[in-house]
Structure formats: C-alpha cells, structure tokens
Amino acid sequence: MTRPEDDPASVSVHSAFEELGRISFAEHSLESVLQTVTELAGRVLPGRPVTSVTILRERGPATVTSSGDLAVELDQAQYRLGDGPCLAAASAGRPAEIPDTRSATEWSAFAAIAAERGCDTVLSVPLPVQERLQGALNVYAQRSTASAARTREMVARFATYAAVPISNMYLYESAVERAGHLQAALDSRAVIDQAKGILMERFKMTADQAFQALARMSMENNTKVRDVAQLFVETGEFRSG
Q: Where do the ANTAR domain residues begin and end (predicted)?
C-alpha cells in the first residue's frame, strides 16, 4: 500500500509549497517571484499551465505579471467582456473556476474564447486581502491525463499557496515605490524652500514672490521648479533664459 508521503506527486507538491514559503523579499523582485511560481507550476501541476496576476485598480483591472502571452490574452478577454473567473475571484474574494471550457454554462462567452485558444480549464484564486489590494492569481491549463478532481485539487492548493508571496511582494514593491516618491517629494520641497529663502534674503521678497519667481523661471526655461531651485542653490545664478 502506497502512503501519501511516498507518492512522488505528493512529495513534489509538498516540496513546491516549502519553496514558496522560503521566498524572501530581500532576494526577489515581483518578476522573479512570478518566475519561481511559474517554474514550480510547470513542475508540479498537470496541464502545462500558464499563470497571471490580476489587480483591480481605480482605472480598471490590470495584469501586473504573467508567465506567457496566452495568460495575458485570456485576462484581456475577460477585461473586455467585463466578466470572467479572474474578475469574479478578485472582486468577490472567492475562488472561481471553469472545469471545462467546452461545456461551460457560466462565463460562456469567455469560455468559448479560452477553448478556441486551447485552454481547457481555468482557476482563479483571490490574493489574500491586505490593505486595499484586490487581485487574483489565474491558472490556465490544458487538459491532462490526471483525474479532473485531482487536477482541481492540486491547482487550487498550489494557487492558494502561491498567491501569498505574490501578494506580499506586490505590496512590498508598491510600498517601496511610494516611499521613494515621498522621499523625492520631500527632497524637492527642501531645495525649493532653500532657494526661496535665498531669494527672500537677497532680493527682499516675500515667500510667495520668491516661489513665483522660481515658477516663472521654470516656465521660461521649460525646466522643473525643483531643478531651477537646485541650480540656483548650487550656483547662486538666477537668470531667465
């Protein structure tokens, strides 16, 4: 009698889960996390799947990463239709599935497109809810020799595990980007305030007059106010171009 721990497929899946759990922010980017997920998916999942990540933004849904053109194409088809598993999973926070695109009764318009492109099964699993992030990990696969129930179980388990590092990495990179923008804004404000102070002292201007002078110089030279201020602070020169 074969024990579960002796089943090569089970051992492979368990090893993949352990590898997903070891992903470190310091050693990866969002792209490398997806590459890792893709490699693991190809290793342990039947049906030669391609994957993507959908994020819901104010201006509409977007595919932020994918492992292949087919995943992007099928994501985009759902965005155009305004309906489909990836949108349902991302917005409702529940897994959404098309077990067989050739006999689907739900999301039939999208299922027909997927079937035509050679995709037999679709599973979208929502990303863990964190802050204001809404999204889903999408798995598109061809039919395999494994049983349908076994395939769905493996894909569901893998997608649930993989969604965690993808979600965390996306939030991490977004936070770093926001922090960078904030620091740049603070640096700009500091140098502009410094330039204003010099103008106020040298030309006896008010704070508003000093800023207007910088803004006017910026427009005349088609240069950012921050760059005008930085050059003035560094050189002391203040001439219109």
A: 172-233
CATH topology (fold) of 4-177: Beta-Lactamase (3.30.450)
- For the whole model, what pTM was predicted? 0.63
Please tell me the class of the 178-235 domain: mainly alpha
Domain definitions of the chain by residue range: 4-177, 178-235
Please tell me the distance from the alpha carbon of residue 135 to that of residue 24, in angstroms, as a whole number.
21
Residue of 188, 164, 168 whose CA lies nearest to 176: 168
Residue-wise pLDDT tens digits, 164-193: 777 777 777 777 777 777 777 777 888 888
